[in-house]
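Why does residue order matter? Because the sequence determines the fold. Keep that principle in mind as you read this record.
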Amino acid sequence: MTSDQRKYPRIAKPVEAVWRGASPGSSVSRIADIGWGGCFLQARAEPAIGERIEIVVTIGDKKIMLTGSVVYLERPIGFSVQFDSLTKEQIDVLKELLGEPPASAG
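Structure:
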């Protein structure tokens, strides 16, 4: 997904994450970049485009779960996820990493 297709810009902030998709089990990976609308996960596993996934990420001393859909695969590097609407709790934790959200985030 090119940056001009994104609703929100992303910043390069490597963060460890664990994600889980349709298949059983979970995979440890690294978020290479993240923004208010989604992220790019560096992972060897390849979920399908459109697959629903859950991502658990620790930011500071807080752990949150983000949900979304796979929108782009970049073999063999990883994949992009578009987040579902964010809750107030998720926004509050993401602020520590991303700063203040745009008015339309969430």
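Strands lie at 10-20, 27-35, 38-42, 52-59, 62-74, 78-83.
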